[in-house]
Amino acid sequence: MFQKQNKDEQLVSAIHLEEFDQETKKSPSPEDKTYTIEEAVETIGFGRFHILLFLIMGSTSIVEATEIMLLAVVSPAIRCEWRLSDWQVALVTTMVFLGFMVCSFISGFVADRYGRWKVVFGCFIWGLYFSLLTSFSPSYGWFVFLRVMVGTGVSGHSQGFVLKTEFMPAKYRSSLLPLATIFWLIGSLLVIVLAFAIIPSFGWRWLIRISTIPSIILIVLFKFIPESARYNVSAGNTKEAVKTLEHIAKMNRSSLPEGRLVEPIVERRGHFLDLMDSTYRRTTLIMWYSWVVTSFSYYGAILASSELLERKLLCVTNADHPPKVLNSDSAPCYCHMFGTSEYYTMLISTLGEIAFVPVNILMLNVFGRRFCLALSMALTGVFFLLLNICTTSAGFTALLFILRSLVSANFNTVYIYTAEVYPTSIRSVGMGACTACSRLGGMIAPFIAQVLISKSVITALCPFAIACLACVAAALFLPIETKNRALQQTS
After folding, report:
1. Which of 61, 69, 172, 367 could form a disulfide with 184 if both were Cys (CB 3.0 to 4.6 A apart)?
2. Do 368 and 478 contact (CB within 8 A), yes or no?
3. What was the pLDDT predicted at 21?
4. Residue 462 in contact with residue 153, Cβ under 8 Å?
């Protein structure tokens, strides 16, 4: 009897011990749990930090738009002051984009190796310094050189978009990132309004000086934005990444997942040749072409509209040369300053950049990135050709309004797709390479939109239309759709 009781007790103890082991296996201690950087970002969710991030890093577009739009509104003034010919005016924009193109590769490499925040901050300091120096240019040669230096600084602004993307939860990227167009719009409108108020009374030099104020404000505000947690994890600085994520969670009144952050350290970061890996080769080549066309069409629309207004070429297929003033070298030079009506048309058309944003967001969420890029490119090509039709001033403004909406939608889509398709290890160098290629389009556009257009309007508009229509086919062949796709840490 006694032995039977002992056996029963041993059997009960064994059963309890087995149940305890199973419970232990089912409920591991918090120290044994792990989570990834993607899980941390999604768990924290969207909150006050992301609003601050959106406002500060989005405002980098104000500065970039300011520097780019200055080229359009200052061109008539420097043409008159230094008696410049068509090719000299076009060369200013081309050289700015040359500096932009060269340093975009460098900024992408440095951002993947040493951090996104450092590149954005350093480039802002650089751009501000040389932008101020530009206002003291004693000659055309100095003006070109100093604007090239400004272009090298602006090249790093795209890393702000990468930084913003890496902190954003997946479901908010396609909605919030296109809204950054608002900041670009603010910068463009700011320059046009300031040019209207300042150039007639104080000249273009004071316009440039006053337009640097947003840069000064942003440099102070950058201290509120941390380095990318995704970058820190890939670089092996997990402790700093966790500290950043805890700060974000506290601001958002949220919490991190239980456990510890675990991600593999990526030793190979920022290598250009990784963009040509078999996984990304086709994507890279198509996106390079897409960025070239996006920039070519965007700046073509801005510069062509500026030239059509300045030279009064509306509703003219083969424009006769307007009256010219000769400079000291006997080279022809056309001098005509913008009037109230020209500034008004530029303001209305610039507002077009925000008009299609709600539609763009809806299309990106429903149909994905590839289809949206193909559709907006097709419509862009059509509306470039429509600029040549004879219409009223209001009709031209309407066409320009829609065209600016479409070229802005193109930029929104390629920016989002590029930031989403590449892994963290090559995201910045991928963005840098793409923005560098885009400046090739920006370098070509002035000679079409500012030089060729004075010979024949339709001949100048056709290259923009053809390039956009060719990009439609390219976009449809992109192998990866990034809609609702998590950001990759490694390839």
Report:
1. 61
2. no
3. 52
4. no
Assign 322 a pLDDT band (cuts: 50, 70, 90).
very low
Cα(385)–Cα(100) distance, rounded to whole angstroms? Answer: 29
Element (H, E) at 171: helix 170-179
- ∠ CA 11-16-17 to the nearest 5 degrees? 95
CB 424 within 8 A of CB 108: no
How far apart are the C-alpha atoms of 274 and 276, rounded to whole Å? 5
Count Cβ atoms within 10 A of the Cβ of residue 42 and give its class: 0-12 exposed, 13-18 middle, 19 or more buried.
middle
What does the alpha-carbon distance between residue 115 and residue 120 come to, in Å, rounded to a whole number?
9
Band of pLDDT at residue 28, cut at 50, 70 and 90: low
CA distance 152 to 164: 21
What's the pLDDT tens digit per position in 154-212?
Answer: 888 888 888 988 898 888 887 777 887 889 889 988 998 999 999 988 999 999 999 99
Q: How many angstroms separate the CA atoms of 468 and 374, rounded?
A: 9
**What span, in angstroms and rounded, lies between the C-alpha atoms of 346 and 57?**
26
HSE value, Cβ hemisphere, 13 Å, CA-based, for 443: 17
Integer Cα distance of 432 and 101 in angstroms? 9
Amino acid at 380: T
Sign of CA dihedral 111, 118, 165, 290: negative
Cβ 110 vs Cβ 119: under 8 Å = yes
CA 450 – CA 430 distance, rounded (Å): 31
Nearest to 413, CA basis, from 454, 465, 472:
472
CA 47 to chain centre: 23
Tokens 């309007």 locate to 457
DSSP state of 450: I
Element (H, E) at 186: helix 181-202
Q: What is the DSSP string of 224-259?
A: GSPPPHHHHHHTT-HHHHHHHHHHHHHHTT--PPSS
| 328-345 confidence digits (pLDDT tens) | 444 444 566 777 777 777
Q: Half-sphere exposure of 424 toward its Cβ, with a 13 Å CA cutoff?
A: 29
- β-strand partners of 333: 325
- Assigned token pair, 420: 């989403």
10 Å CB burial of residue 5 (0-12, 13-18, 19+) is: exposed
What pTM was computed for the model? 0.74
